[in-house]
Amino acid sequence: ILFIFEQYFCHIVLSPLIPEMATQEVQLNETLAHLKSESESLKSKLEEERAKLHDVELHQVAEKVEGLGQFVMKTRRTLKGHGNKVLCMDWCKDKRRIVSSSQDGKVIVWDAFTTNKEHAVTMPCTWVMACAYAPSGCAVACGGLDNKCSVYPLSLDKNENLAAKKKSVAMHTNYLSACSFTNSDMQILTSSGDGTCALWDVESGQLLQSFHGHAADVLCLDLAPSETGNTFVSGGCDKKANVWDMRSGQCIQSFETHESDINSVRYYPSGDAFASGSDDATCRLYDLRADREVAIYSKESIIFGVSSVDFSLSGRLLFGGYNDYTINVWDVLKGTRVSILFGHENRVSTLRVSPDGTAFSTGSWDHTLRIWA
Amino acid sequence: MSTSNLIAMKKVVQQLRFEASINRVKVSQAAADLQQFCVQNALHDPLLTGVSSSTNPFRPQKVCSFL
């Protein structure tokens, strides 16, 4: 109706003055209407195709798998030192060091075995929402309300002022929500409140590729395991999880089943699926080859949002950090909760399993990090 | 104004055409593969199997001493 009205209105206003323009306007609107209906029919076709292959549920296939026993996981280390909410953390490939960032602008590198702080740097901004360890272990990247991602080389000299060697790499037009090095120290992938993700060259600061498609803030990202190739997944405030081709910048798959912001996305270890955690209090599993959601991890009693998710090494367990201060551990195949862990005294904001799978770390608004095993 | 709407709409349609054209497998097949991966790697998953204190650096063998 809107198109017809516009067409009619333009005809009345413009035709006495410029007849050709009026005709063009009409043609444009007809093409727009045509495209709109094509998009609607493509969307239904997509849903149809996905539904055709939905022959069984994951938990049904998993009925024959042995159930999991009781889990005894406890806090084995508590890392104290941040003066405010811990927002993000990442493990070093050496399986013992951790970098964490907080609301007060502090970025700290810890030895998780001894709980010693090895490096500390104060960012010029508050709310450092993203931090990442470089694959070499020789640098860390971080950013937040400064809209940038900066790389700090880590010096062996503990007294050296890290801030002096800081390198600004990424520039967004809104806050930095997440960052990750690719499989080398040379490139960083970022996501931002400006609705985009971007790939940067660390040395030159050059933008190598940008990823457009989210309709609102992008909150999280995860790179596919190296065996699966050059893709990554992102999640945002538009409730969508998008899978991207890193080289072309194209969105290759998109999933929209969450009912609220997606705070965390993490690939299943085989690379064939990914999990997401959302403000809608659920975690979900999306299979990339079936191109659909294949499991929902939820309980009526869980009403607070999930901030962060990660898999155990085999992919059998999914750990979720929640805004109700707990960690829920899910049996990925059967869809049931196997454990609930208490300890933090405020929201769990970040959660990562260590590179060798022997433990997982959580960061919280209670200013601490905990190592669980 | 209409031209930019048109360009945006064309992109949406192009993207949808692309997404509609990908090859998909049945959930039964995908689920079986996910399960197989779990089972194959179960023994190498310390958080799943629960490694003993002697091998997990975060679970040190308890030797208490009063200083």
UniProtKB/TrEMBL annotation, chain A:
Q: Which InterPro entries match?
A: G-protein_beta_1-5 (IPR016346), WD40/YVTN_repeat-like_dom_sf (IPR015943), WD40_G-protein_beta-like (IPR001632), WD40_PAC1 (IPR020472), WD40_repeat_CS (IPR019775), WD40_repeat_dom_sf (IPR036322), WD40_rpt (IPR001680)
**Protein origin, superkingdom:** Eukaryota
GO biological process entries: signal transduction
Which PROSITE patterns does the annotation name?
WD_REPEATS_1 (PS00678), WD_REPEATS_2 (PS50082), WD_REPEATS_REGION (PS50294)
User: Looking at the Swiss-Prot or TrEMBL record, what is one Pfam family this protein matches?
Assistant: WD40_Gbeta
Note the coiled coil stretches, chain numbering: 25-59
Under CDD domains, the record lists: WD40
Keywords, comma-separated and alphabetical: Coiled coil, Repeat, Transducer, WD repeat
Q: Which family does it belong to?
A: Belongs to the WD repeat G protein beta family.
Listed under subunit, the entry gives: May interact with RGS9; this interaction stabilizes both proteins and increases RGS9 GTPase-activating protein (GAP) activity, hence accelerating the deactivation of D(2) dopamine receptor-mediated signaling.
Q: What is this protein called?
A: Guanine nucleotide binding protein (G protein), beta 5a
Q: What are the top taxonomic ranks of the organism?
A: Eukaryota, Metazoa, Chordata, Craniata, Vertebrata
From TrEMBL, chain B:
For this UniProt record, give its keywords in alphabetical order, as a comma-separated list.
Cell membrane, Lipoprotein, Membrane, Methylation, Prenylation, Transducer
The entry lists its GO molecular-function terms as: G-protein beta-subunit binding
- Please list the residue ranges annotated as the G protein gamma domain: 2-67
Protein name according to UniProt = Guanine nucleotide-binding protein subunit gamma
Q: Which family does it belong to?
A: Belongs to the G protein gamma family.
List locations, semicolon-separated. Answer: Cell membrane
Purpose of the protein: Guanine nucleotide-binding proteins (G proteins) are involved as a modulator or transducer in various transmembrane signaling systems. The beta and gamma chains are required for the GTPase activity, for replacement of GDP by GTP, and for G protein-effector interaction.
> Transmembrane region positions?
none
Record's Gene3D superfamilies? Transducin (heterotrimeric G protein), gamma chain (4.10.260.10)
* Self-association and partners: G proteins are composed of 3 units; alpha, beta and gamma.
Q: Which residues form the signal peptide?
A: none
Under the heading InterPro entries, the entry gives: G-protein_gamma, G-protein_gamma-like_dom, GGL_sf
How the protein sits in the membrane?
A: Lipid-anchor
Gene Ontology cellular-component annotations: heterotrimeric G-protein complex
Which Gene Ontology BP terms does the record give? G protein-coupled receptor signaling pathway
